[in-house]
Amino acid sequence: MPMEPESTPMTRGDTDADGAGPRLRRDQPGLLTVAVGPVGRFDDRAVRTLSGLARIGRELTGDIRVVVLELAESNASTTDSASGEDRDPVLAGYQEGVAWLRRADVVSVATARGPLTGVAVELALCCDLRLLGVEASLTLTGARTGGAPLLGATGRLVDLVGAARATELCLTGRTVGAAEAERIGLVSRVVPGTELEVATDALVAGLLAADRVALTETKALLNHTLRDQLAAERESFARRARPDAG
Fold this sequence. Notes:
InterPro entries: ClpP/crotonase-like_dom_sf, Enoyl-CoA_hydra/iso. The protein has helices at 44-58, 88-99, 119-126, 142-145, 153-161, 163-172, 178-183, 196-209, 212-222, 227-241, and strands spanning 8-9, 23-25, 31-36, 66-71, 107-112, 115-117, 129-133, 137-139, 176-177, 189-191. It contains 10 helices and 10 strands. The longest helix has 15 residues, at 44-58. Helix 1 (44-58) links the parallel strand 3 and strand 4. Residues 1-18 and 78-83 have low confidence and may be disordered. The protein is of the alpha/beta class.
């Protein structure tokens, strides 16, 4: 996959009209940084973002060991908008677009400085680790707005914070501040916003210094099988997308 040091979109079609689509940087060997523009609701922008991420995953070269997903602040006032497509293969394609973030031979790290809502939170949960600035927050808006999770957030939340707290967060859609997110295990670490880049660099350095075979084997052991959970989310999402859904 041709990647240049400066930030460049994958292709014109993978970038939103306002330039907010996935953009790539190669800052050092073994590291790929993917900057994702604001995505809150499940709309055309989210679909283009997932399509861009899917292409990155398909074209990922074997030298990449760590992927940093930089998530831009998403507007908390937006509401989820279900896609008109309700076919299982289409929804499975959206899920497949982020499945590579869980590959055993790649460690994925989500970072954010500001509030994340909806799809952006799901993308953060797709990653192995989450590193937030103190001003960041997480809000799963689906239940409040008639939407449903799609990218594996439900199972991931249960793994991270337990069934009871996951149920509360999904059903109430309340905002979780960075400090609480760290306390309950939803994120790996919280740092002052001005130190986020330095903290990310330090984390990446530690991951790149690890033995790759040992890291891959360990991550494979830690990963849970998500197939059944993802299928259940597709079915739920499709039901909510129907015009007669109540």
